[in-house]
Design brief:
This protein is an all-alpha fold and 247 residues long. It has helices at 21-32, 46-55, 72-89, 97-100, 105-122, 130-134, 140-154, 157-173, 177-219, 227-237, 241-246.
């Protein structure tokens, strides 16, 4: 049976994009029984996956969602689960993965605003147990531990800032040639790291776009269910051994 989806046509001047951060965080915490403090915590994609699961429980494979995701490739896997669900639902929204996984405030705020509007347009009031559904996912215990550490760490921020300030002050008075040389070496290493990181990110974005195109081919009515389509789907959806080991 086909699932009806009301996809909101939300432009940047729509009232949905004026929804305040505090209200969005409160909504996520209430809907999913979480305790997030910042919209940037949605950058892993796991929360977005469960929001869709709350709307369409059988459209998201919660066993593939990783709430303990820490690295970019793990974030990307979560967003791939989300994009796959959108494809199955016929939602035309393209998830801006390369922007969201950088955990920048504005990008994640705007996408969460869109998700909130999407939810409001489609929610039928059906009861949802977020804890039971989330228990089917990976990394739930790790997520709780990290949130607990982050909340505890927030209490120590003033002290850390003070220590850091004192360290900087001492550093400014250390004018030795040795320190200047070390600083130059560190700066050179950082620049080299940034160049390499840019290359890696470009390659990641390139191959992710290829995967999206292949996925569109696989779900196309003309090729869906063919031998080639099945083989490609198996390759895309089976997690690589190195990814499993990294977790």
């Amino acid at each position: 049976m086909a699932t009806f989806v009301n996809e909101p046509a939300v432009g940047m001047m729509n009232e949905a994009y004026f929804k305040p951060r505090s209200e969005l965080i409160q909504w996520v915490n209430k809907l999913l029984n979480l305790n997030i403090q910042k919209v940037e915590e949605c950058a892993s994609g796991a929360i977005h996956c469960q929001i869709v699961d709350a709307l369409y429980p059988k459209k998201i494979k919660m066993s593939k969602v990783n709430f303990g995701a820490k690295y970019d490739h793990e974030y990307t896997m979560n967003f791939k689960v989300l994009q796959d669900a959108f494809t199955k639902l016929g939602v035309k929204k393209v998830v801006p993965v390369q922007k969201l996984i950088k955990a920048k405030y504005q990008d994640n705020l705007e996408f969460l605003q869109w998700m909130h509007q999407f939810f409001q347009c489609n929610y039928n009031g059906e009861e949802y147990d977020p804890d039971v559904r989330r228990a089917k996912s990976k990394g739930v215990a790790k997520m709780k531990r990290v949130q607990k550490e982050n909340n505890a760490g927030a209490l120590n921020k003033p002290r850390k800032a003070s220590t850091y300030s004192k360290s900087i002050s001492r550093g400014r008075h250390a004018q030795s040639a040795s320190d200047a040389k070390k600083l130059a070496e560190y700066k050179k290493k950082i620049e080299e790291y940034e160049r390499n990181m840019k290359i890696v990110l470009n390659e990641r974005d390139f191959y992710f776009k290829k995967i999206v195109e292949i996925e569109k081919f696989c779900v196309d009515a003309e090729f869906k269910g063919t031998k080639l389509s099945n083989i490609l789907c198996k390759i895309m959806y089976d997690e690589a051994e190195e990814v499993k080991q990294a977790q």
